[in-house]
Amino acid sequence: AKQKRELKIMADPTKPIVESFAVPPLGCNCTIIGDPTTKECVVVDPGGDVDKILSKIESKGLKLMRVLITHGHLDHVIGGRDLKAKTGCDILLHQDDLSLYENVTAQCRDFGVAPPDGGPLPRPDAFVEDGTVIRWSPSYTVRCLHCPGHTPGSTSYHFPEIELVCPGDTLFRGSVGRTSWYGIPSLQGTSDPQALVGSIRDKLMSLPSETTVVSGHGEHTTIGDERMYNPYIR
After folding, report:
1. What is the pLDDT of residue 91?
2. Which regions in the chain score pLDDT beneath 70?
3. CA-based angle 56:98:100, to the nearest 5?
4. What is the full DSSP assignment across 79-93?
5. Which residues is 142 bridged to in the sheet?
6. Cα 205 from Cα 223, distance rounded (Å)
7. Burial of 83 (0-12, 13-18, 19+ CB in 10 A)
8. pLDDT of res. 2
9. How many angstroms separate the Cα of 92 from the Cα of each of 77, 161, 168, 184?
10. What's the confidence (pLDDT) of residue 5?
11. CA atoms within 13 A on the CB side of 62
12. CA atoms of 46 and 147, how far apart (whole Å)
């Protein structure tokens, strides 16, 4: 059965708050994950429409503490400036994607997208590494899995207590991330198809089968379904 694109796990007030929704300019899935007790939350991949992201955070009474960026492509990062300016949150990503993150204006030019206002994006507050575990609230953690391939610093964020992973554009329902950038100068030479498949097999396919996968674009899936049906990694 076809899975819904928007994901909400909020029915039980004692369980974590999870909401994923597409944002402009290129339909990136932005995900809010919150602690129902402390009201602390993280946002994964704030591509755009910061007003919508903030409205959803505020409607749930949450306080944004961290922005987790899966990779440095424009559609996953350009909302970070306004979120940081309006909430004081920290921005985290893998250092191997810093050059992409800092080169977002050139990416916007190549994709015909308006660049973020105010010049360069703010420098990240911290860099994540493979295996880094962040306790983002007293009851919840996120484990960082470095998954190079789509980009050098692509990172999947695994929330073990919630049985959820956000792999960015590394893994999709029935597919994998793009690695060819012909005609896009700002992204030439930044992808590695063999590394991509290796990252998925070694890092993501080792997660529990019931883990929900909120990919960077499109429909959600599970690790079990991708292990069984994804033709690129079988």
Report:
1. 98
2. 1-12
3. 85
4. THHHHHHHH--EEEE
5. 134
6. 6
7. buried
8. 44
9. 11, 21, 14, 26
10. 57
11. 26
12. 19
Contact 195/150 with Cβ under 8 angstroms?
no
What was the pLDDT predicted at 116? Answer: 82
Distance CA(189)–CA(100), nearest Å, equals: 12
The reported pLDDT for the residue numbered 88 is 97
Which pLDDT belongs to residue 31? 98
Our measurement of the distance from residue 113's CA atom to the centroid of its chain's CA atoms, rounded to an integer in Å, reads 20
DSSP state of 184: -
Contact 117, 108 (CB under 8 A): no
Classify domain 17-229 at the CATH superfamily level: Ribonuclease Z/Hydroxyacylglutathione hydrolase-like (3.60.15.10)
171 phi/psi in degrees, rounded to 5: -130, 135
- Angle between helix axes 80-87 and 50-59 (nearest 10 degrees) is 40
DSSP per position, 129-168: -TT-EEEEETTEEEEEEE--SSSTT-EEEEETTTTEEEEE
The pLDDT, as a whole number, for residue 109 is 95
Dist. CA 223–CA 145, nearest whole Å: 15
Cα–Cα distance between 17 and 43 in angstroms, integer? 12
Q: What is the pTM of this model?
A: 0.94
Single-letter amino acid, residue 95: Q
Residue extents of the structural domains in the chain:
17-229
Q: How far apart are CA 33 and CA 52, in angstroms?
A: 15
Residue 13: its pLDDT value, please?
A: 73
